[in-house]
Specification:
heterodimer, A: alpha/beta, 6-stranded mixed β-sheet, 4-stranded antiparallel β-sheet, 10 helices, 14 strands, 32% helix, B: mainly alpha, 4-stranded mixed β-sheet, two-stranded antiparallel sheet, 16 helices, 67% helix
C-alpha cells in the first residue's frame, strides 16, 4: 500500500519553477531517498508534503485520501534541514511541548519522552537548556522530537549532518527500527553512500523535475556500463581480443569493459583459452555518486533565476 | 483551539519565568517609589534649616509687618550688618530693602544659593506686608477684606448638568471628565506601544531560533500567531496588575515610614498658603469626590476594557506581521513599523489637542475609525457619547481587528519561513491579497 502519492505536483515561485510536475509513490514501511543537488526543489517538495506550502497544482494522496494538512499533519514528523529549537527552553519541557502540539496527551507524551531519553542516554539533560547543548546533542534531541508522536510518515532532511559516526549509527539503527515497525521514512540528502546503505527506493530531482525513480538495485543496473573486474595476472598489451577492452589494469587485476554483443562467459572462455588463471570475476556497478554526478553534470552548479510567466 | 491554548500557556510561562520579567516587574515599582519618596524627603528636609536673615535699610513699616517664620526664616532688624560682613556676623543672608528706582525690587545677598522655596517664602511675606501697608494707607481694614473675600470667592459654583435621553440629568465636572479621558487614553496609548513591541519581538523568536518550520509543520501559522498574541497579552496584563498592586502596597507602606514631623510641616505649609484656608480646600476636595462618584463608572470601566483589548488586538496583529518579515536585526523593524505607529501617535495627538471639545467633528470621526478609536473614544466616554456612535465605533473596531488579524495571518504565513531577506511593503501586500 502506498502511504504517499504525488501527482503532477507543481509549485512556481516568482522567479523559479521550484517543483515542476513531479509525481511518485512511496510504499508504506519503506525508506525512501529524495536526492538532488542544492536548489533542486527538494525542500519545497517536502514543505508541500508537510502542509507548509500549498501546491499550485497537482494533488497529494496521503494514506489513501486527499492530503488534508489540518488533520493529517499529526501523522507526519518533519525534521527540516534548518534545525531549530527554542534555545531558552528546558529540554524536557520543550520535548513535551512539541509532542503535545502533535496531539499527544500529557501522560502519554511524558512516558514516550522518558523512553526515548533512556534509549539515547539523555536522562540527565531534562533540566538543561538547548543553548547548553552541543550541535550533535541538539541534533539527537531534534530527532527525538520528530519521531516522538510515532508518525506514519517521518521526513528527515539531512539527518546525519553534524553527527559523529557513533551517533550517526545510533540514529541509523533507529531509522531501520522505525521502518520495520511500519513507519515510512523519507530521507532527503546528497550523501550518496548513506543512500546506498539505507534507502530502498530513490527519486532524483534536478531543476524542479524528477529525473530518476526506482529501487537502488534497478537504478544501478540501468546505469551499468558493462564493467567487470577480473582477477588475473597478465600484461594487457598481450591480450588481443575484440570481446572486451581494458579500461584499467593493475598487476593482479584488470578492469574491462564488455564490447557490444559479447557475454561474460565469452570473457571467461577467452582467459581459459589463453591459459590464464582467473582468481575472481565480478561486475562493477556504478555507485550512486557516479550516477548522480553524471546526471547532474552539465547543469550549472547554481540554479539560475528565470522569469515565470 | 486546544493547540492555541498550549501555545498561549508556553508563551505565558516562559515569559513570566524569565529573569528580566521578574526584575522589571518587581524593581520598577520599588525604584519608582524610592524616587518619589526620596525626592519628597529631600525637598522636605531641605526646609528644615532655619535661615538667619539680616534686614537693612528698612523704610520703617516692615519691622512691624514682616513676620519671621519659626521653621524657615528668622528676620533680624537690628543686626547692624552690611553686605560685606553679614557672614562673619553669623547670618545666612542679608535682605536689602532699599527701593530701586521702580520701587519694586529688593535685593538679597547670600553666601550659598538660597532654595527656591526660601525665596518664595520671603517674597510672599514681603507681599503681605506691602498689602497691609496699602490697605492701611487707603483706610481699609484687613479683617473686612478677608470676610468679603471669603464670601465672594468660592461662594457659588456652576452646576453643570447633563441631560440624557430619558430626561434624567446628572451633574458633571468637565475637569474630572478631562482627567479620566486623558488618563485612560494615555494608558491605552502607552500599553499599545509596549505590548506591540513585545509581540513583534515575540514573533521573531521562532525565526531567530529557526524553529518556524518545525512549528508550522505542527500547527497552523494562524494558530501560532494568535497563541503568541494572546499569550503576550496575558503577560502584559499580569505585569500591569502586579505593578498596580505593588505600587499600592509600597505607597501605603512608605506613608507609614515618613517621619511624623515631616507630615506636620507639610500641614503647616498648607496653613500658610496665602489664599484659601484649609476648610475651603476640604470643601473643594469634597466637591471633586462627589463629581468623581457622579461619573458613570460601569460604562467608563467596561469601555476602557473593551477599547484596551480591542486596540491591543487590532495593532498586535499588525506588529506580529512586521515581526514575521524581519530577521534578527531589530534595526530593520524601524522603517516597517512607521506606517503602524503613525496612526497610534496621530490618535494621541487628536486626543490631547481636542479633549476640550469632545463633540467636535475631528473627535467624532477619530473615535469611530478603528485606527484611532481606542485612544480617542476614551476621551469622549466620560462626557457622554450618543449610543449610535458608540455602537458604530465598537462594531468597526471588532471588524477592524478581525481584518487586521486575517491580513497579518496571511503575511505571517509567508514571512515566518523567510530567512535572510527583509520583505518590502509591496511584497507583503502581495502575500496578503493573493489567494492561497
Amino acid at each position: 500500500m502506498n502511504i504517499l502519492e504525488l501527482r503532477n505536483l507543481k509549485k512556481y515561485f516568482a522567479s523559479q519553477k521550484a517543483v515542476d510536475d513531479i509525481s511518485f509513490e512511496i510504499k508504506q514501511g519503506s525508506i525512501f531517498g529524495l536526492l538532488g543537488p542544492n536548489g533542486a526543489g527538494k525542500t519545497t517538495l517536502l514543505r508541500m508534503i508537510t502542509g507548509i506550502f500549498y501546491p499550485d497544482s497537482g494533488e497529494i494522496i496521503f494514506n489513501g485520501k486527499k492530503f488534508d494538512p489540518d488533520n493529517d499533519i499529526v501523522y507526519i514528523g518533519y525534521m527540516p534541514e534548518e534545525r531549530g529549537l527554542y534555545k531558552k527552553m528546558k529540554i524536557g519541557e520543550q520535548a513535551l511541548y512539541l509532542a503535545r502540539l502533535k496531539g499527544l496527551g500529557k501522560e502519554e507524551a511524558l512516558r514516550k519522552i522518558k523512553d526515548w531519553f533512556v534509549k539515547f542516554e539523555m536522562q540527565s539533560w531534562w533540566n538543561k537548556k538547548v543553548e547548553d547543548l552541543s550541535k550533535g546533542m541538539s541534533q539527537k534531541l531534534q530527532f527525538v522530537t520528530t519521531v516522538l508522536h510515532e508518525p506514519k510518515l517521518i521526513i528527515l532532511d539531512e539527518p546525519f549532518s553534524g553527527l559523529d559516526p557513533v551517533n550517526a549509527n545510533l540514529i541509523k539503527d533507529e531509522i531501520f527500527n522505525l521502518a520495520q515497525k511500519g513507519h515510512t521514512i523519507i530521507f532527503s540528502t546528497h550523501r550518496m553512500e548513506q543512500v546506498e546503505e539505507i534507502c530502498d527506493h530513490i527519486v532524483l530531482v534536478n531543476k524542479g523535475q524528477k529525473i530518476l525513480d526506482g529501487t537502488v538495485a534497478d537504478i544501478k543496473n540501468q546505469f551499468k556500463e558493462n564493467l567487470f573486474q577480473v582477477g588475473v595476472k597478465t600484461d594487457p598489451h598481450h591480450l588481443m581480443t575484440f570481446i572486451f577492452e581494458v579500461v584499467k589494469h593493475q598487476p593482479d587485476k584488470l578492469l574491462i569493459k564488455l564490447q557490444h554483443g559479447s557475454s561474460t562467459n565469452d570473457v571467461l572462455q577467452y582467459f581459459i583459452s589463453q591459459n590464464l588463471p582467473v582468481t575472481s570475476f565480478n561486475e562493477v556497478l556504478p555507485s550512486l555518486n557516479q550516477i548522480f554526478i553524471s546526471l547532474v553534470e552539465g547543469t550549472p552548479e547554481a540554479r539560475q533565476f528565470e522569469s515565470i510567466k | 483551539m486546544n493547540k492555541i491554548l498550549l501555545i498561549i500557556k508556553r508563551e505565558y510561562i516562559t515569559r513570566v519565568r524569565n529573569k528580566t520579567f521578574l526584575l522589571s516587574t518587581f524593581l520598577l515599582p520599588i525604584v519608582m517609589m524610592l524616587f518619589i519618596f526620596g525626592s519628597a524627603y529631600f525637598a522636605m528636609s531641605s526646609k528644615e534649616s532655619l535661615k538667619k536673615i539680616a534686614v537693612i535699610n528698612d523704610p520703617g513699616y516692615f519691622i512691624t509687618n514682616l513676620k519671621s517664620d519659626s521653621a524657615q526664616l528668622n528676620f533680624d532688624f537690628a543686626s547692624k550688618a552690611d553686605t560685606n560682613n553679614f557672614i562673619t556676623k553669623g547670618y545666612d543672608a542679608i535682605l536689602d530693602l532699599n527701593n530701586d528706582s521702580l520701587g519694586k525690587k529688593f535685593s538679597i545677598h547670600s553666601k550659598k544659593q538660597l532654595g527656591l522655596t526660601v525665596i518664595d517664602n520671603i517674597e510672599s511675606r514681603l507681599d503681605r506686608a506691602l498689602e497691609k501697608k496699602q490697605l492701611q494707607k487707603n483706610g481699609i481694614s484687613k479683617e473686612i477684606l478677608d470676610s468679603i473675600n471669603k464670601q465672594a470667592i468660592g461662594s457659588f459654583k456652576i452646576d453643570n448638568r447633563l441631560l440624557n435621553e430619558e430626561g434624567k440629568s446628572t451633574e458633571v465636572n468637565a475637569s474630572v471628565n478631562y482627567g479620566i479621558g486623558f488618563g485612560s487614553g494615555i494608558l491605552i496609548y502607552i500599553t499599545m506601544f509596549i505590548f506591540g513591541a513585545m509581540v513583534m519581538r515575540g514573533v521573531m523568536e521562532e525565526k531567530t531560533n529557526r524553529i518556524a518550520e518545525v512549528m508550522i509543520s505542527s500547527v497552523k501559522p494562524f494558530q501560532l500567531m494568535m497563541g503568541k498574541i494572546l499569550g503576550i497579552a496575558a503577560v502584559g496584563l499580569t505585569q500591569l496588575f502586579l505593578w498596580f498592586v505593588l505600587i499600592m502596597l509600597l505607597s501605603t507602606a512608605a506613608a507609614a515610614f515618613i517621619p511624623h514631623e515631616m507630615l506636620q510641616q507639610a500641614g503647616e505649609v498648607n496653613k500658610n498658603m496665602p489664599v484659601g484656608g484649609s476648610s475651603e480646600m476640604a470643601m473643594k476636595l469634597m466637591d471633586i469626590q462627589k463629581d468623581i462618584s457622579n461619573v458613570n463608572w460601569p460604562l467608563v470601566i467596561s469601555c476602557f476594557v473593551f477599547y484596551f483589548l480591542g486596540g491591543y488586538l487590532f495593532y498586535a496583529a499588525l506588529f506580529a506581521a512586521i515581526g514575521s518579515v524581519i530577521n534578527e536585526d531589530p534595526q530593520e523593524a524601524q522603517s516597517l513599523m512607521l506606517p503602524i505607529t503613525m496612526p497610534i501617535i496621530f490618535g494621541f495627538i487628536i486626543l490631547s489637542s481636542n479633549l476640550n471639545t469632545p463633540d467636535s467633528p475631528v473627535m467624532v470621526w477619530a473615535s469611530i475609525i478603528p485606527f484611532t478609536s481606542p485612544i480617542v473614544m476614551m476621551g469622549r466616554i466620560p462626557s457622554g457619547v450618543p449610543w449610535q456612535q458608540l455602537v458604530a465605533s465598537m462594531v468597526l473596531l471588532i471588524a477592524g481587528f478581525i481584518f487586521t488579524t486575517w491580513l497579518a495571518g496571511k503575511i505571517y504565513r509567508t514571512g515566518i519561513l523567510m530567512y535572510g531577506k527583509k520583505a518590502s511593503w509591496k511584497e507583503m501586500f502581495k502575500w496578503a491579497f493573493r489567494k492561497s
